[in-house]
Each structure stands twice: as C-alpha cells, then as structure tokens.
Design brief:
This protein has helices at residues 2-17, 24-40, 45-54. It is an all-alpha fold and 55 residues long. The chain has a domain at 22-55. 2% of the residues are buried. The model has no long low-confidence stretch (mean pLDDT 73).
Length: 55
C-alpha cells in the first residue's frame, strides 16, 4: 500500500518543483517534520500513521 501512495505523491512533488533542485535537499526536512509530528501527535491515530509513513 505504501508504494501505491508514495510513488504518485513523489511524482506530484517532483512535477510541481520542476526538478530545479535535488530531492535530497527536501528529503531530510520532510523526515524531520514527520518525526516531530510523530512525537507530538502520537495519541492521534491518523496523524500518527501518516507521519510514520513519511519517516
């Protein structure tokens, strides 16, 4: 299920960015934000699962 969500989402992100910079420049901040959300919102199931998918 993760690849069914992740691959189209990545295509949308890269399409909107126009490949003007490398993916690695946004990967670490995305992981950090998802980890922070996982720690803060771990009581809420939906947000916990979404942040876990990003991490």
């Amino acid at each position: 299920m993760g690849t069914n969500i992740g691959a189209p989402l990545m295509d949308i992100v890269l399409g909107n960015l126009g490949l003007k910079f490398s993916l690695s420049s946004i990967a670490l901040p995305m992981i950090g934000i998802a980890g922070f959300a996982f720690l803060i919102f771990s009581r809420y199931g939906k947000i916990k699962n979404i942040s876990r998918a990003f991490v």
